[in-house]
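Standup notes, protein team

Yesterday: finished cleaning the Colwellia chukchiensis set.
Today: Agmatinase structure.
Blockers: none.

Input for Agmatinase:
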Amino acid sequence: MTTSWSTFQKKISQCLCPPGNGVFTVNTAKERKERLHNALFGQSENIEALWQQSVEKLPESSNAVILGIASDCGGGILRGANWGPLFVRSALLEQYPNLNTFDMGDVRVIPHLLHDKYLNEATLANCRRALYQDENSELPVSPLTITEDVLHDFYAEFPKKGIFGIGGDHSVSYPLTKAYLQAKKKQGVRAAIVHFDAHTDLLVERLGIDLCFGSWCTHILDDLTAPRDLIQVGIRSSGKPKAHWENTFGVKQHWAHEVKEQGVDAIIEKITRQLKADNIDEVYVSFDIDALDETYASATGTPEPDGLSPSEALQILRAVAAQCPITGADMMEIAPFTDSTGLGEASRDRTLAAGAEISAFLIEEINK
């Protein structure tokens, strides 16, 4: 862990890259990246230098800080969520131009890697040579490990700021929430995770890998004050009933059919009552876009029917925010180039519009 702003700034310059550049390409999506850079920096040349200069303003920036993690190595159905950070940012800039936020950039992603613990020494040395031109560097090389390492330092340096993470497959929420929860514990804050998803993400492992899009929740439970501080909303695609997950892991769940059958107000009352009864101080919201019904969110790796509408999700989020401050959040699993509907760009644009609306709300709440 670094110990000062100057050393943390150096780590940012090494481990991160300009917004939109998290997917390593030469020509692919070049025009889209240039449009994003023009919107952020007023030009599309010398972006590295301009971004480095912008990072200097982080200490005086807004409370809400964007971090892109363009990794889908932890996914496993349809890939493509690595393009989420580029497209979601562009949608936010186009649809919410007055949003008050600071963009810290993207994690530098080697797309074949997930977490450093899966790598041998030779691979670590090769990747450090590629990323940092120094095979003896002690810096991490995998997206999950880089994200957690950077954010431990971020929260130590800026305890009043909050991260809005843009993924990426949902494994990315593992380091985002882990660093957040550990920082809040050090501050004496009891924090809850409100997790919107069609799936529980409570596997212990998937095909022998313990950190992935289907298991990340399991591996942050020890960082919560109590397992019930993980509140899941919108669940509907599961091989096991609700009782299995709640009894096995101690989490609280509100399945999508309950929202439809009982009404959104009844679910809101249950969630807010729990937050109040458990003396929750702050909330982190992790939002998998497939929590929404596939008619609203089809550009994702696992679109599911019978989900929430954007208005239902926002109703719940507004009620949560009225009960507890939202001080961290993420938007995950938007895969702009996937399409289960055959509608092409219309499918992508509708998914991005829903994701941007929810993201803008969360960013505004973090700023408060």
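Follow-up from PR in the comments: The longest helix spans residues 345-367.
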